[in-house]
Design a protein that fits this description.
The protein is of the alpha/beta class. The protein has 3 domains: 91 residues, no CATH class; 206 residues, Rossmann fold (3-Layer(aba) Sandwich), CATH 3.40.50.300; 141 residues, no CATH class. The protein contains 20 helices and 15 strands. A 5-stranded parallel beta sheet has the order 4-9-14-3-15, with helices on both faces. The chain has a two-stranded antiparallel sheet with strand order 1-2. A hairpin with a 2-residue loop joins strand 5 and strand 6. Helix 2 crosses helix 4 and helix 4 packs across helix 5. The radius of gyration is 31 Å and the shape is elongated.
């Protein structure tokens, strides 16, 4: 019996015994060619799988098995399994939607020219950079405009300021505004322990003074005036002066160089403006009083004027939350969106709300839980024997509401159903986060539900 006849017998055995349709189809195609042409090589076109990478890998494995003289269906199947396990997935194997998602989360490098003309290389995700609000605020930074963000709690106003600071590579210096904010907090002053520098002064000068008396120079500062409408109008007047001067650059007629604007700190020392971008936040526009916004003061129109042309109403960005903040964790995002909408429906926002921060906390809690469980199962030493679960996080969140509100929320969002979903996700394969590989717990059903939520929100 010659080699071709032996190969025909092997193929006939595969067709008779193998349960894999792709393998059987390939064997039938090759058998037909051998019988008619006496050729051993398997051709992709004969198998009708030219554009299928997995099918190509199966065909290659089948050729390899035959060259080794395998006749057992089990041996051939094992050969195919080994080849498929070793096959690397290329970008061309991915769907258009998945390629777009990966591209949106890809880190990109930027060279940013700062106000003092010192270039700085930083990085961000393309999805964050291309957000319209990000583009407008970066334009404001270059134009030395103060920016004011207002909108409902949890819409990501503070998050935006934090991300802009990271993008610029600058220090985030925050003043939590309230009726108790004092001139000392703004420009500095004398305390029992000695002189304390103000936060506006530090941001203006680009020098951070630590509590131990030491100081450090920074490349620039994003000054976040968090909850600005809550500041006492008299104290706001002190801040108002600094806000007005950020654009007051003059030109020296003799040298043609720019003269930087100055303010004086609590000691009366003149400070020259360095790299500074002022971002203020609030739940309402500055020149309003809202009975639902605690400690809200109607501010002088001059304070509102400091942000004129750069006052932005910020709403929830479902698409950004889903694609970037919660990428791969749609099941958590979907549930938290239901919780957010139920809170709004029950008018319980004064108790708690669903922000980007709770989303990130929930995701990281779940990742930590899976990490620790993976370490325990593989016998690695760990101080944590009973890691906090995602359900623990949600229980604590629901406890922020009054008993009647809590019961209504739990019923409206089907909390028991979510617990069952989490139990199923716990059975899915997990890559330890220490390996720097993103996990994807999304199923086709999750993706469809998330996209429906996004589409509905956009329409509303």
């Amino acid at each position: 019996m010659d080699n071709t006849e032996k190969q025909i017998e092997r193929l006939q055995a595969i067709i008779a015994k193998n349960q894999n349709p792709a393998v059987v189809s390939s064997a039938q195609a090759q058998l037909k060619m051998l019988e008619s042409q006496g050729k051993v090589e398997i051709h992709n076109q004969a198998a009708g799988m030219t554009n299928n990478p997995d099918a190509q890998a199966i065909l290659d494995a089948l050729n390899k098995a035959m060259s080794k003289g395998y006749t057992s269906a089990i041996d051939i199947r094992n050969e195919i399994d080994d080849v498929l396990k070793a096959r690397k997935i290329n970008e061309s194997d991915l769907s258009d939607s998945l390629r777009a998602l990966i591209q949106s989360s890809r880190k990109i490098e930027l060279t940013i020219t700062q106000l003092n003309a010192q270039p700085k290389v930083t990085s961000t995700t393309d999805a964050f950079l291309q957000r319209p609000l990000t583009q407008m605020m970066l334009s404001d930074m270059r134009a030395r405009n103060n920016a004011y963000l207002y909108g409902a709690a949890g819409t990501g106003k503070t998050y935006m300021a934090e991300e802009i600071a990271k993008l610029l590579g600058w220090e985030l210096i925050t003043i939590n505004c309230s009726q108790y904010t004092s001139p000392l907090d703004i420009l500095g002053g004398q305390t029992i322990e000695g002189y304390q520098e103000g936060r506006v002064s530090m941001a203006w000068e680009n020098v951070v003074y630590e509590s131990d008396g030491s100081s450090r120079k920074i490349d620039g500062a994003v000054l976040l005036l968090d909850e600005l409408p809550k500041i006492d109008p008299n104290t706001a007047g002190i801040m108002n002066d600094a806000l007005a001067k950020v654009k007051n650059f003059a030109e020296d007629p003799a040298t043609g160089t720019l003269i930087r604007p100055t303010i004086r700190n609590g000691k009366g020392v003149k400070l020259y403006l360095q790299n500074l971008f002022v971002i203020a936040t609030g739940n309402v526009p500055l020149n309003t009083i809202d009975p639902d916004y605690e400690a809200n003061f109607k501010q002088d129109l001059s304070l509102q004027d400091r942000f004129v042309g750069s006052t932005y109403k910020v709403g929830y960005d479902y698409e950004f939350e889903y694609n970037v903040i919660m990428s791969g964790y749609a099941f958590i995002w979907i549930f938290l969106i239901k919780v957010r909408e139920a809170i709004i429906d029950l008018r319980a926002q004064s108790q708690a709300f669903v922000s980007m921060r709770i989303m990130i906390n929930a995701k990281e809690t779940y990742r930590t839980y899976r990490d620790v469980m993976d370490e325990i199962q593989t016998g690695k030493a760990n101080l944590i024997s009973k890691p906090k679960t995602l359900i623990d996080t949600m229980d604590e969140f629901f406890n922020l509401f009054k008993p009647a509100q809590k019961d209504a929320l739990i019923e409206q969002v089907d909390y028991e159903g979510f617990k069952r979903i989490v139990a199923e996700k716990n059975k899915m394969p997990y890559i330890h986060s220490g390996q720097k590989v993103a996990n994807d717990f999304n199923t086709s059903q999750d993706v469809a539900e998330a996209q429906a939520l996004i589409a509905r929100y956009k329409q509303s």
